[in-house]
Amino acid sequence: MVNILNSLEKAIVKHRRKSLSRAIFAKHNGTIQRGPFEGMQLNGVANISQAAHGLKIFGLYESPIMDTMLEWCPAEVLVDIGAGDGYYPVGMLRANLVKRAVCFEATEAGRKAIQINADLNDVGDRIEIRGRASSDFTKTIEGLNLPPQQTIILCDIEGGEFEVITRELIENLSGAKFVIELHEQLIDQDKTQLRQKILSAFPENYQTTILSDSPRQWKGIPELEAMHDLDRALITSEGRKLLGEWLIAETLQEE
User: Cα–Cα distance between 153 and 156 in angstroms, integer?
Assistant: First the structure.
């Protein structure tokens, strides 16, 4: 009985969070209201959860890594591995934070969403959309003619990072900056060993840091301040089962 009640509570919470986010998204017609991507339009149809729409509208989505990438901009190229609906590549192109974006997205629904959002924001001519990033990703990268020291690699592929992000890839892109979301909890292997594997893939000239998620700063956003405490907590939550963590890696000094 306890398990049934717990499952029911979780389902209600998820439904409420998604319902609130959809309402916010509809109210603002999918237009981001604040932050570096202010004015960007989102179609809202993708293979990812719509429960994050509220965070995106208020410019709060994954703010820890957004802040990190902003420190590296402007840059020439963003390579987004697991691009979802194209939020980052489209937003960074529109804000002229990068000049070119290459998206790798496994699902057809995601690739269509990226193209729609790119066209909505008039950056379709600067974005390249590809399929799944596989274990031979280094060979694919070699054909992109990337300027490593002016390239940002963003990776969010639900555990696939441990196969795709290799020493060979890093050396091929020596000088590039990496943001890699870690998902070792999704893989049935030794979790410590998996994390050590990806950390040790970076040569000595790289500095690596594990960045953990943190509470969203909603103060000064009237629409959020006016909400019930519980609704505001749901909107500003990423809805993760575990604390979000990202591996940040950059060279100690420019080559």
Answer: 10
